[in-house]
Amino acid sequence: QLVESGGDLVHSGGSLRLSCVASGFTLNYFGIGWFRQAPGKEREGVLCISSAYGVTYIADSVKGRFTISRDNAKNTVYLQMNSLKVEDTAVYYCARSSSCFGSYNSWGQGTQVTVSS
Predict the structure, then answer these.
(1) What is the rounded CA–CA span in Å between residue 12 and residue 9?
(2) For position 12, what pLDDT does the model report?
(3) Best exposed site among 42, 63, 78, 94 by fewest CB in 10 Å?
């Protein structure tokens, strides 16, 4: 099971840190990705982290602003989001993959991030 938290309403230029806590498995053995879905748009991949491949950027739009990290002791993956833009507004999900390059077979319920201008 994956549970996201940390979503909030923030002004443009602000920062947020999202958390994805895993239970029932050790996330260090898997790729954990962050995805987002804005209203009326398809879900898009943002970032992924795995022991085999490190950090993988999926969305060019977040390079230099978003980072992903993992705390193995807490079985938690974080998404640090800086310099937030209105277009970052979306529901953010974390999901589990075998390596970040395979299919994702377990998803959290999502957390809402809203960036105001």
Answers:
(1) 10
(2) 98
(3) 42
